[in-house]
Specification:
This is Flavonol synthase/flavanone 3-hydroxylase-like. Belongs to the iron/ascorbate-dependent oxidoreductase family. Keywords: Iron, Metal-binding, Oxidoreductase. One of its GO terms (molecular function) is oxidoreductase activity. The protein is an alpha+beta fold. The chain has one domain: Jelly Rolls (Sandwich), CATH 2.60.120. About 30% of the residues lie in helices and about 25% in strands. Strands 1, 2, 3, 4, 5, 6, 7, 8, 9, 10, 11 and 12 form a twelve-stranded mixed β-sheet that branches. The protein has a two-stranded antiparallel sheet with strand order 13-14. Helix 2 packs across helix 5 and helix 3 packs across helix 5. The longest helix is centred in the middle third of the chain and has 26 residues. The structure holds 2-oxoglutaric acid and fe (ii) ion.
């Protein structure tokens, strides 16, 4: 899809499904079964949904956003040690980048921190450590419950997908994106080009400035969250483990307004050493296998080291059809 296609549709929330977390956890049998079914449909049709009644305090979300805003406003030399970091370094800061790729201009600062199994954080601002510890633990708990519900929605035991991906030892990363205001000539265009996320599930909230869009049926839809809701995006590992039944959503961030936009992302992914492949129960007799097993660490490194290109990274795991297998040498 050309990135210049900014057609949006689906009403103010883009028609994105809403999942009530409280019903998943505390609901009576019937409403809970309905919520699981709706969750499955959302993952199948959209690859994303909003979560309400999630139990993560607004003050904690606010503290995470505020602390990272402080980090972005620190002088360059305070962040220097993380500015040159590579994709597998546990703390990475990219700042003030305004680059032109394929004729589209991107405008974004970001902070990426590995948060589990071990929390890594920049030295400043000092309170970032505690805020990140609490925020990552709360959101990890929420995402692990969603992972069990997703497993059930596939007709499996709640523990099956978490076990297949070793989510107990999951890799978790926090990403904070800051899109500065733009008042220069012309449109900035994109803050972040179309991509799917390399992990399993991404949880996101923003500072009230819209800009996230998701693709469905070849059109971009505005992802405007309900007040207090989190936005959840299925990642590539969910697409792989479900053998393509659920899909990682293609999404992008559009910027260019007079107010800075910020988004805070908490993503869980398989344990770095887990080899992710479709669970056999979803591939009867091995027929119709869409993906082969790829170690998550290799997948992530591959996706992060190449130019962002929609869902192209998934091709390294995709089973090629019609190619005669070569004898082993
Ligand atoms: O800023 C946003 O809304 C999108 C961020 C995103 O997609 C990402 O960090 O992977
Ligand atoms: Fe993303």
């Amino acid at each position: 899809m050309p990135s210049s296609d900014v057609a949006t549709c689906g009403g103010p929330n883009g028609g994105i499904p809403v999942v009530d977390f409280d019903v998943l956890v505390n609901g009576a049998a019937d409403p809970r079964a309905r919520a699981i079914r709706d969750l499955g449909r959302a993952c199948e049709d959209w690859g994303c949904f909003m979560v309400v009644n999630h139990g993560v305090p607004e003050e904690l979300k606010e503290a995470a956003m505020e602390t990272c805003r402080e980090l972005f406003s620190l002088p360059e030399e305070e962040k220097a040690e993380h500015l040159e970091a590579g994709p597998m370094d546990p703390v990475r800061i990219g700042t003030g980048f305004f680059s032109v790729v394929d004729g589209v201009r991107y405008w974004r600062d970001y902070l990426k921190m590995f948060a589990h199994p071990e929390l890594h954080y920049p030295a400043k601002p000092p309170k970032l450590r505690d805020v990140a510890a609490e925020y990552s633990a709360k959101t990890r708990g929420l995402l692990l419950v969603l992972a069990e519900a997703i497993s059930e929605s596939l007709g499996l035991d709640g523990g099956r997908i978490p076990e297949a991906l070793d989510l107990e030892s999951c890799f978790q990363i926090l990403v904070v994106n800051h899109y500065p205001p733009y008042t220069g000539p012309g449109d900035v265009g994109l803050g972040l080009p179309a991509h799917s996320d390399h992990g399993f599930l991404t949880l996101l909230f923003q500072n009230g400035v819209d800009g996230l869009q998701v693709e469905r049926d070849g059109r971009w839809r505005p992802a405007k969250p309900l007040p207090g809701a989190f936005f959840v995006i299925a990642g590539d590992q969910l697409e792989i483990v479900s053998n393509g039944r659920y899909r990682g959503a293609l999404h992008r961030a559009v910027v260019g307004g007079e107010r800075a936009r910020m988004s805070v992302v908490s993503m869980i992914a398989p344990c770095l050493d887990a080899v992710v492949e479709p669970v056999p129960e979803l591939v009867p007799d091995g027929r119709g296998l869409e993906f082969r097993g790829v170690r998550y660490r290799d997948y992530m490194e591959h996706q992060q080291s190449n130019k962002i290109d929609g869902k192209a990274a998934l091709d390294i795991a995709r089973v090629k059809r019609g190619v005669a297998s070569q004898p082993e040498k």
